[in-house]
Amino acid sequence: MFHLMKMSTCQVRRVYTREQRSILEASFARQSHPDLNEKERLAKLLNCNLIQICNWFQNHRRRVRKQQQQMSTQAHSTMACQTFNYQNECSSYGLYQQSPSQYVGSLYVYPQETWENAMTYDPFVNYYT
Q1: Is the Cα torsion angle 103, 105, 107, 113 positive or negative in sign?
Q2: Which residues are CB-contacts of 27 (< 8 A; sequence separation ≥ 6)?
Q3: 12 lies in a domain?
Q4: 56: closest CA among 43, 71, 69, 66?
Q5: What is the pLDDT of residue 109?
Q6: What is the 3-state secondary structure (H, E, C) of 35-65?
Q7: Mind listing where the DNA-binding region sits, in residue ranges (predicted)?
Q8: Given Cys at both, which of 11, 16, 27, 108 links 20, Cβ 3.0 to 4.6 Å?
Q9: pLDDT at 96
Q10: Rg of the chain's alpha carbons, rounded to an integer?
C-alpha cells in the first residue's frame, strides 16, 4: 500500500543545460567535494536549490568512480590476457630449448628402458635401500 501513496511535494527531475553542466564540471575539476559556500554560489549562479547541487556532485563522484573501476577492470583483463599469451609463447618456445634429459618420465631420460619399464621406474628405490 505504501507505493500507492503520493508525495505532496513531488519534484520534477532537473535537466541541466550544456552551459550549466560545463560550469558544474569545471567546479568539480577544481574540487570534487566543494564546501557549503561554493555549493551555495553554484546554486545561485545556476538558479537551482542547494540540494540539487549536492545531489549533482554526489552523483558525479559516483559516475567518475564507476568509470575508473571499469577502466581499471578493462586494463587488468587486458593485461592478464597479454600476460597469459606471453606465458604461452614463452612456455611453448621453452620446450624446444630444453634438453631431452629434462623430460622426467619420458623414454629419453632412460633410453635403455622399454616403455613398460620406464612407466614403472622409481628413481628413489636405489636411494633409500
Answers
A1: positive
A2: 34, 38, 42
A3: no
A4: 43
A5: 47
A6: CHHHHHHHHHHHCCCHHHHHHHHHHHHHHHH
A7: 9-68
A8: 16
A9: 47
A10: 34
Per-residue pLDDT of the chain (129 residues; tens, 9 = 90+): 455 555 556 777 888 999 999 999 999 999 999 999 999 999 999 999 999 999 999 999 999 999 999 998 888 887 776 666 665 665 555 544 555 555 555 444 445 555 555 556 566 665 555
Does 58 fall in a domain?
Answer: yes
For residue 31, being part of any structural domain is answered with yes
Q: Is residue 91 part of a domain?
A: no
Report the distance separating Cα 25 and Cα 16, nearest Å. Answer: 12
The residue range of the domain holding 63 is: 18-74
Q: What is the CATH classification number for the domain harbouring 49?
A: 1.10.10.60
Compute the C-alpha angle 108/112/117, nearest 5°: 90
pLDDT at position 13: 83
